[in-house]
Amino acid sequence: KLGVKRTNNKAVIPKFETEGASCFDVVCVAREPFGPRSMIYNTGLAFDIPKGYGLEVHSRSGYAFKDDIRLANGVAQIDNDYTGDLMVKLTYDGPPSYRPDWPIVGDRVAQVKLVKNVKTDLVEVDEIDKETERGDGGFGSTGK
User: Fold this and answer.
1) Which of 90, 106, 114 is nearest to 26 (CA)?
2) Strand, helix or coil at 36?
3) Which residue from 20, 28, 66, 141 puts its CA 20 to 30 A from 14's CA?
4) Backbone dihedral region of 93: left (phi > 0), alpha (psi from -120 to 50 degrees) or beta?
5) In sequence order, what DSSP letters do the residues of 3-35 get, joined into one string?
6) Would you state the pLDDT for residue 136?
């Protein structure tokens, strides 16, 4: 179970839109411009994230496909010890000559998923103890 607290009386308690949905949508209760290409949205919601879990916040695909609007930091990770409002910053990546249809108050602005955190012990080593076909090739090296 994931506890949800309204911090604004206009906040909408999220729900999964379909039985197969892996994320629930969050709705904007207030927005303000943040520079010429970004907008900050307050969801009016705080989450009681269980210990050992976190929330991943993702862009809604419709904004990206239709208006080149995305979550500013790609995918956001909300730690279980954060108890404040869930805020979403959206950024416009399209040409300056086009004016996007920004989400307005009452619109769904992001999708959120509860994820299990895997804690690990980080140990410094002198060498990576394996050889692979890829090795240290990166940045598209597997697509040669």
Assistant:
1) 106
2) coil
3) 66
4) alpha
5) EEEESSTT------SSTT-SSEEEE-SEEEE-S
6) 76
